[in-house]
From TrEMBL:
Residue intervals of the Dihydroxy-acid/6-phosphogluconate dehydratase N-terminal domain: 113-423
UniProt KW Lyase keyword: yes
Entry-linked PROSITE patterns: ILVD_EDD_1
An annotated Gene Ontology molecular function: metal ion binding
InterPro entries: Dihydro-acid_dehy_C, DiOHA_6PGluconate_deHydtase_CS, ILV_EDD_C, ILV_EDD_N, IlvD/EDD_N, Sugar_Degrad_Dehydratases
Name of the protein this chain belongs to: Dihydroxy-acid dehydratase
Taxonomic placement: Bacteria, Pseudomonadati, Pseudomonadota, Alphaproteobacteria, Hyphomicrobiales
Gene3D superfamilies: IlvD/EDD C-terminal domain-like
């Protein structure tokens, strides 16, 4: 039977026509009947509880009703969370209401209406989010259209190029801030606005832990860069032309021109860096409206998507469509598959592990590797491919890519749109098969991310084979080891550095505690004397991360890190180190006896912080395979609602 204009959906005792959101089409109701009768409860089957656990996952939450379409409303005006602040008749609620009136609101603004928090990571110094101040007004427009009360709440912005020593040091800060902003305010549902690298996982982790209905508005990529007829990609072309400058092939004038042409509009990095990867993952998990993550920041569609998200969150509150109803091992598998097909950033592994643990799921590192072997790279986007995110959007965007992956995805998962993924992907089409390739003709058959283990990394490390020189995917060479970044930086451009193209560069103390904050130092610079000789890739090994815009034979996230005494701490210049990407192996050719001797002589470095956030971070942050989350923030243990006295 042909669906004419949407399914019929039960709302209370009535059935209404129901359409999922699609770009350019608005299906939300403009007004809400707040006098409707109480709605039936318990409309969710528990069949999903019996679903077999997926390999690579542990701790499936016992009542995970994933994959079920939204069939009934759960909330009434009296059961809204904000009702405790505004709906009761006591001294405190008088104070809350009088203060809303102080803001110029009247009872018509709040009676019977969900309060929608808009957690906005706009700031004056974050160019990736420069448009989010205006875009929040689009979200508010949508919330008002659908009968909600929008309340904007600013949160830490985490501009990746600006925040030091590493924005990753503050991802958990943003997650805590998001969770506590929502807990302490009279919020019924939330629109999360971010995009620059750590903001996506930070916002989502906090929202998952808080458990209120949440929808994500991705900032979207900036426009393509340009310089003298060349198309420039964020980060990737910075590294490339920096090496050209170091080799003396371009001068200061050219370098300054590139500086002015590589970032031409608001929006996130427009290669397949961490930002584009995490926005796509948010969509694949089900946290955005279908197609939202690919829309360029400055495209008019972005404003329409923001308004539609505002409308949709109001419905999600009434439906009680919480993250717990969206997230499941199936949803995370979908996200990992999309990550691999996008040729996504290695950073995403850490964030996915952290988000899953917030939802009560533990993803084994082996799961990433298994999916990596199964799903080839389809997105022909730099640094693994040729094009940029703006081109990817014109080619059909993430919906089109997920359409190509349809056979590999669990199409029963239900995200914020309220319909199964299979339905949300209806009509998805690839307009440029050279940019979004097929499973039969991928960009690369090697998966986007390989997980290696061995005596150097007993708990794993990662690399991105499609972004490496193929001849280095199997390599054994002498080690040139640096104790920290400063030692490396002081030596790397020296003409007398004893290094050859076969050397393996090793950087220690770049991990979660050692960096601190696991900075993106993993793409160590090629020694200047080798750059001049035309060398553009070498094997580089560290416990740090690398930008998703980076490339090369970089082995990252070595776990446990050297700062806590992981085997990486014992590596010395002159050792031989072997990597085998296909065999998923990394091996330090040093005997057990010698390693034991070095371990006995090793002393832990002094703490990085004596006080403040850094001290709290150092005391509680986990290793890379644990998602670098805080030990007291993972899991699903409930936190009490605030008392109102
Ligand atoms: Fe913000 Fe790359 S610097 S997304």
């Amino acid at each position: 039977m042909r669906r004419r204009s949407g399914a019929r959906k039960r709302i209370g005792r009535r059935f209404v026509r129901w359409r999922p959101w699609v770009p350019g089409h608005d299906a939300s109701r403009r007004a809400r009947d707040t006098s409707r009768p109480p709605l039936p409860q318990g409309g969710v089957s528990s069949d999903a509880d019996c679903a077999p656990r997926r390999p690579g996952y542990a701790d499936e939450p016992p009542s995970q009703p994933a994959g079920l379409p939204v069939t009934s409303h759960k909330k009434t005006p009296e059961t809204l969370r904000s009702h405790r602040w505004f709906g009761v008749s006591d001294l405190r609620s008088f104070g809350h209401r009088s203060r809303l009136r102080q803001l110029g609101y009247d009872s018509a603004d709040w009676v019977g209406k969900p309060v929608i928090g808009i957690v906005n990571t706009w700031s004056d110094i974050n160019p990736c989010h420069g448009h989010l101040r205006a875009r929040a007004e689009d979200v508010k427009r949508g919330v008002l259209q659908a009968g909600g009360l929008p309340i904007e709440l600013p949160a830490m912005s985490l501009a990746e190029p600006i925040v030091k020593p590493s924005a990753m040091l503050y991802r958990n800060f943003l997650a805590m801030e998001t969770e506590e902003l929502l807990r302490s305010h009279p919020i019924d549902g939330v629109v999360l606005m971010g995009g620059c690298d750590k903001t996506t996982p930070g916002l989502l982790m906090g929202a998952i832990s808080m458990g209120l209905p949440a929808i994500y508005v991705p900032a979207g990529p900036m426009l393509r860069g340009h310089w003298r007829g060349e198309t420039l990609g964020s980060g990737s072309d910075t590294w490339k032309y920096w090496d050209e400058k170091r080799a003396g092939r371009i001068g200061e004038a050219e370098w300054t021109e590139i500086e002015g042409g590589i970032a031409r509009s608001y929006g996130t990095c427009m290669v397949m860096g961490t930002a584009a990867t995490m926005m796509a993952i948010a969509e694949a998990l089900g946290f955005t409206l279908p197609g939202a993550s690919s829309i360029p920041a400055v495209d008019a569609s972005h404003s329409r998507m923001a308004a539609a998200s505002g409308r949709r969150i109001v419905d999600m509150v009434w439906e009680d469509q919480t993250p717990a109803r969206i997230l499941s091992s199936a949803a995370f598998d979908n996200a990992i598959k999309v990550h691999m097909a996008m040729g996504g950033s290695t950073n995403a592994i850490i964030h996915l592990v952290a988000m899953a643990r917030r939802a009560g799921l533990t993803i084994d590192m082996a799961r990433f590797d298994a999916i990596s072997r199964e799903i080839p790279v389809l997105a022909n986007v730099r640094p693994s491919g040729q094009w940029l995110m703006e081109d990817f959007y014109y080619a059909g965007g993430l919906k089109a890519l997920m359409g190509e992956l349809r056979e590999a995805l669990d199409l029963s998962c239900v995200g914020v749109s309220g319909v199964p993924l299979g339905e949300a992907l209806a009509g998805a089409r690839v307009h440029r098969p050279d940019i979004i390739r097929t499973l039969a003709d991928p960009v690369s058959r090697a998966g986007a991310t390989a997980v290696l283990t061995g005596n150097l990394a007993p708990r794993g490390c990662v690399m991105k084979p499609p972004a490496a020189d193929p001849r280095l995917l199997k390599h054994c060479g002498p080690v040139l080891a640096f104790e920290d970044f400063n030692e490396m930086a002081a030596a790397i451009d020296r003409d007398d550095l004893a290094v050859t193209p076969d050397h393996v560069l090793v950087l220690k103390n770049a991990g979660p505690k050692g960096g601190p904050g696991m900075p993106e130092w993993g793409m160590l610079p090629i020694p200047k004397k080798l750059v001049r000789a035309g060398v553009r890739d070498m094997v580089r090994v560290s416990d740090g991360r690398m930008s998703g815009t980076s490339y090369g034979a970089c082995i990252l996230h070595v776990c446990p890190e050297s700062f806590v005494g992981g085997p990486l701490a014992l590596v010395q210049t002159g050792d031989r180190l072997e990597i085998d990407a296909d065999g998923r192996r990394i091996h330090l050719h040093v005997g057990e006896e010698e390693l034991a001797r070095r371990r006995a002589a090793w002393t832990p470095p002094p703490p990085r912080f004596e006080r403040g956030w850094g001290a709290m971070y150092s005391a509680h942050v986990g290793q890379a395979d644990e998602g670098c989350d805080f030990d007291f923030l993972t899991g699903t243990a409930p936190t009490a609602e605030p008392e109102i006295h």
